[in-house]
Amino acid sequence: MTMTTTHAWPTAVSARVPEPTLARYPAASQPPRPHTAVELDRLIQMLRASRAETIAIGHGRHTASAGAADALAASWTAGAGQILAVVDWPAAAASWLRPAQRLAGSQPDAWILADTPAGCAQLVGRLSGQPGWTPGRTFGFASVATPDLLALTPPGALAGMTGATAAGGSWRIGQSLLLVNDDPEGATP
């Protein structure tokens, strides 16, 4: 199990991550790797274990993020799950308010995010202000689970968010740390 604590969030909190802060974490903006089959299977297991019936999927516009969202949608609906919204957002925008409103406004049992850590952080800056959204009901693909995501979001903004690793394990975000368990057998951090 790996634990990481990181925060570079400026003291004057804005919904948008400042460019100088993003520049300190160049890997956070790199296109994500495609999801894996075991990662998708584990994510579906986690959603079922949470008793989610309805989900909303949010993703960046990178090919891998869109592919992960499409694969999740196909797998979820094949198992009789319902998708209330699929929302995408650009890597750079004046504001991520509209995608955040559309994603949170659907009021699903769970939200799932697929993007780069930088893109996810930008969305979370707006998502955290939306009524009804909670990180405890938010899941993510492996692409977002990096220390950079913690560094680019306010402390505690994602506490409770969880997801699957590329190896079929799991990860969970605490107040200021990321717990990763890459062992698919004991995949609850």
Protein architecture, described:
The longest helix has 16 residues, at 63-78. This protein has an 8-stranded mixed β-sheet, sandwiched between helices. The chain is globular. The chain has one domain: Response regulator (Rossmann fold, 3-Layer(aba) Sandwich). The model is unreliable at 7-14 (pLDDT under 50). Helix 5 (117-127) links the parallel strand 4 and strand 5. The chain has 6 helices and 8 strands; from the N terminus they run βααβαβαβαβαβββ. The protein is an alpha/beta fold and 189 residues long.
Question: What descriptive keywords fit this protein?
Answer:
single chain, 189 residues, alpha/beta, Rossmann fold, eight-stranded mixed beta sheet, 6 helices
Q: Would you count the extended β strands for me?
A: 8
C-alpha geometry = globular
H and E string: EHHEHEHEHEHEEE
Q: Low-confidence spans: pLDDT under 50, at least 5 residues?
A: 7-14
CATH fold naming = Rossmann fold
**Biggest sheet features:** 8 strands, mixed
Number of domains: 1
Distance between the termini: 8 Å
Strand content: 15-25%
Which CATH class applies here? Alpha Beta
CATH architectural grouping = 3-Layer(aba) Sandwich
State the secondary-structure class: alpha/beta
Radius of gyration computed on alpha carbons: 15 Å
> Percentage of helical residues?
25-40%
